Amino acid sequence: MKIVTSQTLAILFWQGCIGYGQVVSPSTNVTNVAIDLLDGSHILHFLDVVDAFGHVSARNPDNASQFIMSFAIAPALATSQSLVTYEIDNATAVQLTFNTSVTGNAVPSGFLERYIHSQIYNAFPNITGVVHAHTINVISFAAAEVGMRAQMGSAGSVGTLANGTPIFDFDSLPTSILPENAPHNLLIGNEVLGDALADTFQNGSEVVLMKGHGMAIRGTSVRNAVFRAFYTMQNAEVQSTATLLGALALGGQAPVGLPPRVAMDATVTFESDSLLSRAWALWTAQVDQLPLYVNDLRS
Prior knowledge:
- This is Arad-like aldolase/epimerase.
- There is one protein chain.
- The chain has 299 residues and is of the alpha+beta class.
- The chain has one domain (24-288): 3-Layer(aba) Sandwich (L-fuculose-1-phosphate Aldolase).
- It is built from eight helices and nine strands.
- The chain has helices spanning 6-18, 28-46, 114-123, 136-143, 191-198, 222-249, 260-270, 273-288, and strands spanning 55-59, 66-70, 83-87, 93-96, 99-103, 129-133, 167-168, 207-210, 214-219.
- The chain has a nine-stranded mixed β-sheet, with helices on both faces.
- 43% of the residues are buried.
- Residues 8-21 have low confidence and may be disordered.
């Protein structure tokens, strides 16, 4: 017997409010991506990469000028009825992905920072998955203005840039991007700010640290972006510990991290379909054990 949780009741109520009878079946491609989006949202929460805030998105596999992400809801609570299709151009809501009768202004309010996603997709046509998270041990690096370098093979996508991962500093933006009369609240709330963030990415790293805020991760799929987000968090812990140990044993010498060739080859290996699928199978099995997480596209 399936346990009826408060979240399940909330989903049923929400579906009734928006006209559940109008739910349509998108293409198989979109449905498969949506399944990964819901799993990815739940996995990121389960693994403590996100809490009530943060989000993951996917480029629409049927229309490269669009992307799909949840409206403004905690990642752990995302279901098919919270998924929205957006235009990359100005991050405008098109419709609920699984209820095409709800369009435009009738779509519930989206994340203010959906421009992180739209502008990364706009800048990088090969990117099909994006994660934004406010992970605490990653924020520490940006606060100290210390870039991260890959310390282990599973985090090879962090890169081995000389100064570490690039750091986006909201408060240092010129007034042409952040006018004096605009909110200085760290949030990427428009296309101009989103473009500035996207421009911070550098070849050799799939991560941008955001000072006082979090991180942005670009990936070749939802699963890939989630994998990178988790192991960026793990890498931050390893690098922090290695830095402290280095201060004790080596007179303050910072950890160098992996050589570039090793990081590059390790990325190819660890992000291969076989290893990524192994991690994904474990993570989905873990979230499936908890009633908090509901992926109604496959349950």
